[in-house]
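Researcher: Going back to the complex we discussed earlier. I've cleaned up the inputs and rechecked each line, so this should be the final set. Can you rerun the prediction on the complete assembly and write out the structure?
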Amino acid sequence: MRFGIAVFPGSNCDEDAFHAARDVLGQDAEYLWHKDADLKGADVVILPGGFAHGDYLRTGAMARFSPIMTEVRAFADRGGPVLGICNGFQILLESGLLPGAMLRNRGLKYRCEHVHLRVEQIDTPFTSAARAGQVLRIPIGHGEGNYFAPSEMLQRIEANRQVILRYADPEGRLDDAWNPNGSANAIAGLCNEARNVVGMMPHPERACEALLGSVDGRAIFDSIVGAFRSADQPSPRLRRSAMASAEAERLALQPSVVGAAGNRHPSLSMGRSASLSAGRSR
Amino acid sequence: MIDPPVLERHGLTPDEYDRIVQFLGREPNPTELGIFSVMWSEHCSYKSSRVHLKTLPSDGPQVLQGPGENAGAVDIGDGLAAVFKIESHNHPSFIEPYQGAATGVGGIIRDIFTMGARPIALLNSLRFGPLESRGTRRLVEGVVAGIAGYGNSIGIPTVGGEISFEPSYADNPLVNVFCLGIARASDIVKGVASGAGNPVYYVGAKTGRDGIHGATMASAEFDEKSADKRPAVQVGDPFMEKLLLEACLEVMRTDALVGIQDMGAAGLTCSTTEMGSRGGAGVEIDVALVPQRETGMTPYEIMLSESQERMLLVVKRGRENEVERIFDKWDLHAVHIGQVTADGMLRVKDRGQVVAEIPNRALTDEAPLYERPMTEPAYVAEAQKLDLDALDCLAEASTLEDLGALDRSAKAFALHSVADGRARGLQPGDLNSVLLSILGSPTVASKRWVYRQYDHMVRTNTINPPGLGAGVVRIKATDRALAMSVDGNGRYCYLDPYRGAMLAVAEAARNVACAGARPLGATNCLNFGNPERPAIMWQFARAVEGIGAACRALDVPITGGNVSLYNETDGRAIYPTPTIGVVGLLERADHVVSRRFQEAGDAVILLGDSRGELGGSEYLKVMHDLVRGMPPALDLDVEHRLQTLLVTLAAERLMRSAHDCSDGGLAVTVAECCFDTSRIGVEISIDRVQVARESRMNVCAALFGESASRVVVSVVPDDVIAVLERAAAADVPARVVGRTGGERLRMGVGGQIVIDQSVDDAERVWSTAIEQYVAKRVA
Amino acid sequence: MRARVFVTLKPSVFDPQGRTIADALRSLGYQNVEDVRQGKYFELDLATTEAAEARTVAAEVAGRLLANPVIESYRIEVD
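Model: Rerun complete. Updated structure for the full complex:
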């Protein structure tokens, strides 16, 4: 499959995402210059980390006006999978593709370190290869990753099961001491209502090779590659049933879930394969 | 018009002025005087230091670029070059810690990409006064945030560094920043202007009045303008620099470029002059064409401005459009401000009218050169005396009050462990608290609070992150990796600058070798006081001699660097502080070694001899508040053999961890090997040394002495024989001193357990000490 | 005309910088500083002489770019 990696002036994790996609995963990858209104046939779009437009004014505030974002939005509207990492997440928030906003870290300092993430939802194209409740060790590197949403919005996000990753302790328990930036409900990763647009503050591309200290980021990339592959197959039913049992297992294992997520019966069919084929139409 | 006060404000002596008049055959105008003053300043001309720097070794088959360019370069195989340099930004960081440190990072990054290299790693070496002072904490927070703010934004990882705290830096912190980049060896770009008629381009941020030093303001005409127009503090813009970095590297991939240089110190003046001088050509520019941020700027101000993020390029004639298009793509505007000439002159025009005309040679090669007088300062002989028999080695550590700088919870740990030791009938249990005191001293303690603020992972190459020894980055698309370390010990250099400087080179190279890398080359940043004082000049000369001797013996030529003089406040100089950066090559990235023990049950081997040397040690400083004695002796042959052995052991995968013994000696080193592991403890047993009458002082010397050329390695039991054999063949002393395992730090001296301490408690003291100091902060 | 735009975090949004500044002020002895909210300030030079038009443009700019409506609110002054 082909990864399209957006490059804004000030992007600085674009090469890292490219390396993960092409050299580690062995997939096709293309850079998408922000002034070009062309996704170059990408099957998945990554908005990488960095400080687009200097992060001046607010992180991600100006990047959303780049021509490429018009294309990204249309691609997302067609159901195409979009992953925003760190600054890319901030851009998705600013452009309204995901709900909420980022504040400065609670400790007011930039933090770069490995954190533990609990996988909350696996019915997105970026988490389908993970187990629900699985704990991923992936690094963060940001000064403004303190996720905020007004309480009604937060309730809606939780009710829709849009929180896909939460900061947790190494055993997967939620604990404020393990929330590195003060994010509301320990939110580290989020999807939209259609579940094809995902934003996450941690950097999966920094955790794809054992030499770098963790391979847990592969779960995110393997998900999208797997989702794409299964979308090409006639029936994704097998995968859905596997997901269903994983979801059931998660609900059984999980004693307390922040917000309303745990109380809802999971709906299992996300139209993921449909969204992916839509994404590929070019 | 040009009278003694004007000369004094320009930092020029009457003799120097006569020399200027002689060169020009006339009196200089104010603009020319300004140009001379900055080019002949210590900072640009190295007039006090050059005679000494010339003695440093800078050759070797691996050296692709020695001193004299924007940065040095060494061959790292696969057709690639490592391009690196270290530079100081001490004074600006004291005035405005955030911006001073940030622009220091920006400057060194420009030096690297100017050579055609993509910067891939940063290190820094910082010196502050004691953390007990609120002022120091403010400086530390500002400097660290500034380094983070710039490096993180531009996306270059800070992969290591060092920090220490000493009263001599209280009013003069040191901020030394190192950057390394990778280039194709065949594509290294130089800062030359050549080919008469080739256009000269200006690109980057607009020119403002920033950085024009008050002391170099020229005629009365300029003096009338209010001082608030001329901020001395430069403000960095990492976003602009990121654009410049990408655009310049893209331009370099064409062959349309002749040469390029950043406008650092002395801005447009220095870049035009140096590029012309290197290319044996002249440069002619019109300042009216220079993009300006403020109105009413004079040629003098434009030539001397030190606004950040600006580059000067010489482009091949006929290729202008190609270059302009690339800059346009990055929303940068490249402006044609002049051309290369054949006459060897720096010619500055203002709307076509010549306002300065000076032979390049006069500004560079013919700049003054001084052999300044030097004398050994009186303090040295006295400070080198150390009477260990006069010290009571344990009294200081036995009560709560005497645990010095430790915060309350650390003291509680310390006392707890003392009681714990006594309860177990261990004598003398007090050494536990000595160890904790040293582990909690900010110079020794974990710097996690600092490096967590640096993005050390961006570019996904970092395989030894900060805190584990040398920083190591793999080189994508090859099997190789580069290890790098910056080290210096002002205390040692204060006591003996020659030996201290040698030890700094040895430590930096040893750290690189501990990671498994063969040291290839070095860069130095020489931080000293006022060179016009003979005592300071003596320190400088002796330190340079020491660096030269060590670099020759260890085969790490100096490929470039920087000198920072006049580091004084109210006539009190900092400790002489040469900072050495060493770069080494690992043939296989996956053979990288860190300081951490890997598994319980491994043998712990000490390479090198312990002689119980306590002169200038962290133990004396923390426990007795003394900076005395001779720094540890260094046998450069032994050191070289040790480093070669380390590289062999790593390549054969015989050592699972390696940690250099430095501040705090063997006890601290062994403890640090246990930290950041899954709580792997250790038990070691070492010999007593005989350095004092009192037996307990001898125990302290064995544990905390800082003898050089020692490394603690851990080895799988099956490999112990092989390691000992390799060491014997290399003629390096080696002995098994213990075994990893358990959850305690247990250390015996002369057959008696003297330290018995839970790893958890010790690690808590070590890992939280700096955070606890900073938490006392008031914004 | 010149429009001034003041952008601040909404009252419901926690402002850690403001709190830190307030703490610092109290530790400096300013016990009557109850709270500090920090924000951003913009000056727009507009090519118009109509105050109403200036205000309209400023409001549009503030709503579209200068402030993030999820977390920030803004106030405009025109002269």
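Model: Worth noting: The interface with chain A takes residues 9, 12-14, 16-17, 20, 65-66, 68, 70-71 of chain C (CB under 8 Å).
Researcher: Good, that matches what I expected from the previous run.
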